Amino acid sequence: VLALEGNDTLDKCSYKLEHVGKLVHLRHLKLGRIGISELPKEIGHLKLLLVLDLGRNSISELPESIGRLSELKCLNICETDIEVPYWIGNLTSLEELCLGRVHGHSNFVTELGKLTELRKLHIFKSVYVYGGSRMNSWAESVAKLSKIQVIDIDFFLGCRDSSHEENPWERIVLSPQIRVLHMSYLEPGMVARINPSLLPNLSHLKLHVCSPELEVFGSFRELVALKLETVSTLHHDTIGAFPKLRFFRTEATLDSFQEGDMPVLESLQFEVVAQSSDDGISFGFDFASLGNLPLLKRVVVTLYAPRADVDQKKAENTAKRAMDMLPNRVEHSIIPRATENWRRR
């Protein structure tokens, strides 16, 4: 094991690595934040290397010799400027892969399918996939990851040329071993593959949905954290749903909560639209119903209200008073927004 950990004040010449290739028995190499901007090609001589961790450096390119490290099980380049190398598919023993950004021109959408031993995929920044052919290649590659347990992508921007194209998600089945699925982009065919019978171990989910129905997500018995990206009003009426859900975040508005809903929920973030009339401020959500969530500790509300200062302030105060009256003393915060911004979505 060789682990070098520096700090952000180091200059680019702090460490010299030209002799690291002579450590032929090395299994674990961590070079974290040590001020390096390139790696020697001799690193490819480390045939027994299992872990290569290069996080938080100024490296922009990996030497191609790393593609010959046939035993490598973990590669971390997530907090670097490294573009995903075109030969990434050669590392067929990889079980954990952490990347920074996948650009639109990258061949990663096809190379990913060669990494059939992969258990964990983390993409720290973003993935860009443009066009029906590349979108299909991405879906087919993900489906080949039969051992995958974690797909954690911070931001995914994918688009097709036409909504009438063939969609491979209609025939694809994701690995039933998946526990964490953070892969949110507009792909209706994919949403149909996210159900408890196919993914029984799912505990963390981030997804873009078009349907306002929550029933299918409430049926995941192991689901702990849920983030849904949608502009619909979400609702459900299934008693006993979400038995283990502790964290729920959505960009949508919600119906009121009934007794027995989300019985162990601790953290909630959602959006509310305020209406102003001669009778005062009203909401489409009943804040008092938050009292039906017995373990709730924290609420964050994005509150859309008419732009007039008096109406916005009145809406904030009305919502705040309603949450102050909750029996379970919930910590809460309100993020004010103008109603016009809601209508533009």
From TrEMBL:
InterPro entries hit by this protein: Leu-rich_rpt_typical-subtyp, LRR_dom_sf, LRR_R13L4/SHOC2-like
Keywords assigned: Leucine-rich repeat, Repeat
Protein name according to UniProt: Disease resistance R13L4/SHOC-2-like LRR domain-containing protein
Domain Disease resistance R13L4/SHOC-2-like LRR, residue spans: 1-329
Source species: Aegilops tauschii subsp. strangulata (Goatgrass)
